[in-house]
């Protein structure tokens, strides 16, 4: 059988120049037989050959270049320094992972136009943990997956092949050091990942990851003592439950010595958790953390806890409040090997949300930022939506939790509190599609998340340019066109879907395409609370009080519609359609204009893509073009449904007299 082909994403190693030399490798301070080091060297050999035609040899000759790898314990953990000169390259690193990252940095710089002898960088990761969360299920399906089926699981079996290794290479090349291999909603066979049924295969997977500096983690079913152990409770304070976990976790570490720990979704959207037994989230997390601690493991506990069947007709009820309400009072109660994983916004990965007030709101607890690279609410990897600018906004947000080190980047990296555990996690957007991410351009988000979590100071544009150079190696003019497309795309998507922070208005189950009143879990209420006079949710001190969950400076800013950033106006306020925005336009006119412009600008994106036909490989070009056709249908549909909905509600005509369908 022909092996299935898949693309090499940003590790395609295009020919960059024709070098005349060969390379000799000299290693000092490291064990050459170490798995990570061997993988690093083999990547160097592969990349250098493909990009410069130069080979690595063992023969010492006078004019050979030397690639010197040497240990330097004065550098930070996982850090590296690369320095090219006429003799070759010096790579110094703290540890083997630093060597691996250094090699990928060398190859990246060559792919971006430098000669091998010119490479230069001094780098260390900003975040201790840089993780991918797979929402893959054991039957091969992927929750919110838009790129085919899982490449980890087929029919409840774990699949390990060349693709697994390529995947690990891609992740290492962008600095990822932890991977959660199964969906946070742990159902069916996934509960058995911590049993004999799967240990051997998980170990094999974990060994491959380990060779690329990546720890394997799993999502955990809090009800395992019942489902696997036959107990009649999973109360975290019950003696039998604790002793069941002690045995289970010992078994896990006997079989998977390098195991990282567990990610837990509890008490949310139907998942079991400590609330059932009148216990707190801290009771649940700490019990597991104590049991796993002797093995060096960690518990990553998600803060996405809310009551999904809330009755929204009560205007004081507010899902946005839930995370803070459940977790803030327990700040300081979590043990030191617990990390709380917090979604970037208080709701659920909308195209625009304020930053969750828990980030930095907690001052005595390890925190990790969770973002969604999978485009659940942002276009299903059909519509172009480069998400890195959104992540940057979140990282750069001043929480005002202290003076000086108060951005989200400060908080999650550990700079604010001086803690060692924290970082960034992404719900990944991969699947077994030939190109991994469905839309070839969605790989920019995957690449970008890794790069940004490694170095939060990189700009969205720098990341886009790097990705374009490595993936397509385009001439400058075309590279600029694609870069501009990426950078424009998020706002365009926002304009034709749900501007001003209103969110949702999307089909309730699928989350693609408009359904203005759609709400997933309950018949009661809408997300937007529109009536014939206005739209938006009053989250001020007179409304749900959500704005008061922020530190004073931000609370004040959000509480007043005149100081609230306009892109979040309808998130925080219920505003009349006749309200004048800073542009002088009324709110209603803004809604019309935004949707017309968004649709038009989406057409602009598609037209720009057509300009790249000659320089993008044909299959790639066609795949993306087909998606632009669908995106344009989607944008039209959104424009028409939203505009006509609000026209009918408000009865205010479009000042420009355009047809509202
Ligand atoms: C969203 C998403 C779910 C997912 C949940 C989560 O609500 O639609 O599919 O399980 O987030 O993050 O746990």
Account of the 3D structure:
By secondary structure, the chain is an alpha/beta fold. The strands form four sheets. An eight-stranded parallel beta barrel has the order 7-10-11-12-13-14-15-16. It is globular, with a radius of gyration of 25 Å. Bound molecules: alpha-D-glucopyranuronic acid. Alpha-D-glucopyranuronic acid (GCU) binds next to loops.
Number of helices: 17
> What are the distinct ligands in this entry?
alpha-D-glucopyranuronic acid
Number of domains: 3
CATH class of the largest domain: Alpha Beta
Strand content: 5-15%
Across the major sheet, the strand order is 7-10-11-12-13-14-15-16
Strand segment tally: 18
Compute the average pLDDT: 96
Compute the gyration radius: what is it?
25 Å
Outline the low-pLDDT stretches: none
Q: What general form does the structure show?
A: globular
Give short descriptive properties of this protein:
Chitobiase, domain 2; binds alpha-D-glucopyranuronic acid; alpha/beta; TIM Barrel; Alpha-d-glucuronidase, C-terminal Domain; globular; 18 strands; 661 residues; 6-stranded mixed sheet; 8-stranded parallel β-barrel
């Amino acid at each position: 059988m022909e092996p299935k082909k898949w693309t090499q994403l940003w590790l395609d190693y295009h020919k960059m120049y024709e070098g005349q030399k060969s390379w000799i490798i000299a290693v000092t301070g490291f064990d050459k037989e170490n798995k990570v080091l061997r993988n690093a060297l083999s990547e160097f050999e592969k990349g250098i050959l493909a990009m410069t035609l130069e080979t690595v040899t063992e023969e010492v000759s006078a004019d050979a270049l030397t690639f010197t790898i040497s240990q330097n314990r004065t550098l930070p953990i996982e850090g590296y320094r690369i320095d090219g000169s006429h003799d070759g390259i010096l790579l110094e690193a703290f540890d083997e992972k630093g060597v691996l990252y250094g090699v990928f940095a060398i190859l990246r710089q060559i792919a971006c136009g430098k000669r091998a002898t010119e490479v230069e960088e001094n780098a260390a990761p900003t975040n201790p943990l840089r993780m991918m969360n797979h929402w893959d299920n054991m039957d091969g399906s992927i929750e919110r997956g838009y790129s085919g089926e899982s490449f980890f699981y087929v029919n409840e079996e774990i699949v390990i092949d060349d693709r697994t290794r390529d995947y690990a290479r891609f992740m290492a090349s962008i600095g990822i050091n932890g991977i959660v291999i199964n969906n946070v909603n742990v159902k069916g066979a996934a509960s058995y990942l911590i049993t004999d049924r799967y240990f051997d295969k998980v170990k094999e997977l974990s060994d491959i990851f380990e060779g690329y500096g990546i720890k394997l983690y799993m999502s955990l079913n809090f009800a395992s003592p019942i489902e696997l152990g036959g107990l009649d409770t999973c109360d975290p304070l019950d003696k039998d439950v604790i002793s069941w976990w002690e045995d289970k976790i010992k078994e896990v570490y006997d079989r998977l010595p390098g195991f990282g720990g567990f990610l837990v979704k509890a008490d949310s959207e139907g998942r079991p958790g400590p609330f059932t037994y009148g216990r707190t989230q801290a009771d649940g997390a700490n019990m597991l953390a104590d049991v796993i601690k002797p093995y060096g493991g960690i518990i990553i506990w998600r803060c996405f806890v809310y009551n999904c069947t809330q009755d929204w007709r009560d205007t004081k009820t507010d899902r946005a409040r839930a995370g803070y309400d459940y977790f803030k009072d327990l700040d300081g109660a979590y043990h030191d090997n617990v990390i709380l994983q917090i979604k970037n916004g208080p709701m659920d990965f909308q195209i625009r949300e304020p930053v969750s007030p828990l980030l930095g709101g907690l001052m005595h607890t390890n925190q990790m930022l969770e973002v969604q690279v999978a485009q659940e609410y942002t276009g299903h990897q059909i519509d172009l939506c480069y998400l890195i600018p959104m992540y940057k906004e979140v990282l750069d947000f001043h929480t005002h939790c202290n003076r000086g080190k108060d951005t989200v980047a400060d908080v999650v990296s550990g700079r604010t509190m001086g803690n060692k555990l924290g970082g960034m996690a992404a719900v990944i957007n991969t699947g077994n599609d030939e190109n991994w991410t469905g839309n070839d351009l969605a790989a920019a988000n995957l690449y970008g998340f890794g790069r940004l979590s490694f170095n939060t100071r990189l700009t969205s544009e720098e990341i886009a340019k790097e990705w374009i150079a490595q993936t397509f190696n385009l001439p400058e003019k075309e590279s600029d066109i694609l870069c501009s497309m990426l950078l424009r795309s998020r706002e365009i998507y926002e304009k034709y879907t749900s501007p001003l922070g209103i969110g949702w208005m999307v089909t309730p189950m699928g989350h693609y395409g408009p359904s203005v009143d759609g709400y997933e879990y309950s018949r009661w209420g809408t997300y937007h609370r529109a009536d014939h006079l206005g739209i938006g949710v009053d989250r001020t001190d007179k409304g749900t009080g959500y704005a008061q969950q922020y530190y004073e400076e931000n609370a004040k800013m959000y509480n007043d519609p005149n100081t609230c950033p306009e892109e979040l106006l309808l998130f925080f306020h219920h505003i009349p359609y006749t309200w004048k925005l800073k542009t002088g336009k009324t709110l209603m006119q803004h809604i019309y204009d935004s949707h017309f412009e968004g649709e038009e600008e989406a057409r602009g994106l598609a037209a720009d893509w057509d300009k790249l036909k000659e320089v993008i490989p044909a299959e790639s070009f066609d795949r993306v073009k087909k998606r632009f056709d669908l995106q344009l249908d989607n944008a039209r549909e959104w424009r028409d449904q939203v505009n006509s909905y609000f026209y009918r509600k408000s009865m205010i005509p479009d000042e420009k007299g355009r047809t509202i369908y």
